[in-house]
Amino acid sequence: MPKSFDFEASNNRVYVTHFCKNKACNRAFLDIDRYNAIEPPRWRYCPECRKKGFGKRKKKNKALSV
Questions:
Q1: Which end of the chain is less packed: N or C, by CB atoms within 10 Å?
Q2: Neighbours of 31 (CB within 10 A)
Q3: Which helix (H) or strand (E) holds 48?
Q4: Which domain holds residue 42?
């Protein structure tokens, strides 16, 4: 790839099919390929599962130790 390659430019975008990380869902969706994937990745949740709350980090309560 040339040094001036811009992933965010609409004419340079390369897409890859992802499979949802949620085993019960198993939907396929398109996203920008940032890592030159050879096989369809499974490390992301689909937009529908993200709306349901999957993939969101839960805040941990840190108790103050005295």
A1: C
A2: 15
A3: helix 47-52
A4: 15-52
Task: Please indicate, yes or no, if residue 42 is contained in any of the structural domains.
Answer: yes
In a domain, 43, yes or no: yes
The pTM (predicted TM-score) of the whole model is 0.60
State how far the alpha carbon of 36 is from the alpha carbons of 9, 18, 29, 31, 40, in Å. 17, 12, 16, 12, 10
Residue at 5 is within a domain: no
**Total domains, the chain:** 1
Residue 65 has pLDDT above 80, yes or no: no
Beta-ladder partners of 15: 32
